[in-house]
Specification:
The protein is α+β, with helices and mostly antiparallel strands. It contains three helices and eleven strands. The protein has an eleven-stranded antiparallel sheet with strand order 2-3-4-5-1-6-11-10-9-8-7, covered by helices on one side.
């Protein structure tokens, strides 16, 4: 029997853009009212809705979008507001936060130590088990209701592959709680 597919939802995709001319962080503060904090400047855009982070090197990081196309539109809008040219804008895809649901109750308190292709620990503060998945290069936060938030992935397909793998591991290990 083939494993059931998972509906993976990208919650956030980090994307960095490099302009031919680096963005001056001080100019962002002066022209757009950006906020300088911890060596970066932050500016929130309303349309498209995104947070723009300018690092000390003048590179643009877009946070809060789910698609690369939306991040690119935010970077272009930001550059337009700054009066800068977007010609030659290069893109670097960063990690994403994605979610899916195992659709079964899981005994997360039992998922600790070496499990499958990962190391796990139970986080009492969050009420979830955290699995460092070395096979897929992701970190999974798993709650008792079967909800899973995955960080560090570079594609939704990798998250889906991890979900199928861990569903099998949890099934074989007896971590799913059978409802009567």
């Amino acid at each position: 029997m083939a494993p059931k597919g998972f509906d993976v939802r990208v919650e956030n995709q980090l994307v960095r853009f490099i302009s031919q001319t680096p963005v001056d962080p001080d100019a962002v503060v002066a022209q757009l009212g950006g906020t300088a904090t911890g060596g970066v400047v932050i500016k929130v855009l309303d349309a498209p809705r995104a947070t723009v982070v300018i690092d000390a090197e003048g590179k643009i990081v877009i946070h809060g979008t789910q698609r690369v196309e939306t991040a690119r539109a935010a970077a272009k809008e930001f550059l337009l507001q700054m009066g800068l040219d977007d010609t030659g804008l290069t893109t670097e895809i960063g990690p994403m936060v994605a979610s899916f649901d195992f659709e079964e109750t899981i005994a997360v308190e039992s998922i600790v130590g070496q499990v499958g292709a990962g190391d796990a620990q139970y986080d009492a503060r969050l009420g979830c088990s955290i699995v460092e998945d070395s096979r897929h290069g992701v970190t999974m936060h798993i709650w008792p209701n079967g909800r899973c938030i995955t960080t560090g992935a570079h594609s939704p397909n990798m998250v889906a592959m991890a979900a199928v793998y861990w569903k099998g591991v949890f099934d074989e290990s007896g971590y799913f709680i059978q409802r009567i």
